[in-house]
Amino acid sequence: MSEVRDSQSTFAHTAEEEFGRLLDYYGIEWQYEPHTFPLAWDNAGNVTEAFVPDFYLPQQDLYIELTTLRPRLNSRKNRKIRRLKELYPDVNIKLLKRRDLRALMLKYGLDHAAEKIQGSEAQKGDT
After folding, report:
1. Consecutive sets of 10 residues in the chain, 127 residues long: mean pLDDT of each?
2. Residue 32, Cβ neighbours under 10 Å: how many?
């Protein structure tokens, strides 16, 4: 059904792994980083910037991007999502911010996972 990875190192962040587990628990089919969307090209036509959403939910035709960055550090990610929407208007994408992730995890009893995405630890390794 899903493409859960056995190794933690496959996911860029523990929040992604926990989100995948939540989707599995509710039987929601998902794929992890299945598509790369070019966002900018040089004069020779080579891709110079791209965006890879974290999850794709095929049954909902929806891409999900997770971020655990503090709100003031989200500007680059928000810019990429705006650019993606300009270039690919038929692509449905939802950005789940740190507070959204925490609320989901707390709602579904994943208190241990919610603890992992709060505070300064949440910023390590995020892009």
Report:
1. 48 84 90 96 97 96 89 82 97 89 76 59 42
2. 20
